[in-house]
Amino acid sequence: MEIQHEKENTKRCSKCGRTFLLKDFKMRHGKPRSICKECARDQERERYRKKHPRETGVFLIKETGRIVERTKFNVKLFWSPAMIQALKTYFPNTPNKEITEIMGISAWELRVKAKELGLKKDKEYTRKQSLESLLIGHAVSKEKGYPGSFQKGNQAGKAYWFKRKTTFT
Length: 169
Description:
Number of strands: 7
Distance between the termini: 73 Å
Strand content: 15-25%
Structural class: alpha+beta
C-alpha cells in the first residue's frame, strides 16, 4: 500500500529521465509539467541566451571611446594611464557623483578602482562635507518645524513612561 502511495507522488522527468517527487516539478494548469524544475530552469536559460545573444571579447565603445572586455557574465573596463591619473587628481577632494559624470563611469566602478589604487578622501574635505550636511539637515528641520528636541514640560508619550513602584515596609 505504501509503495503504491510513493508511486502516486513521484514522476519521471522526460528530459533527464530521473524520478522526482511531484513537488520538484513546475505546475501548469494544476498539473505537473513533463520536465523537472532543474531541467526547466536550464531550458529557460538556454532560450534566453538564444533570444539575447551577447558577444564576448574586447570591444571599443565608440560613444565613450573606452575599451571594455565582455565575458558571458560581466563587463570589465580597461583604465588608461590618463584615466588613472585623473582619478588620482580628482578623488581626494571631489564628490564621487561629479567624478562619475566627468569620467563617464559608474559609481561602483569608481569605488572599486579607488580601493584598488588605495585612494582615500582627504580628511579636511570629508570634515567639510559632513559639516555642510549637518547644517543642511538643521536648516531643513527648522523649516519643517521640528525644534530638534522636546521643550520643557512636554507630556508627549506619558502613557508609556516608566512608572516606579516603590514599597516601603
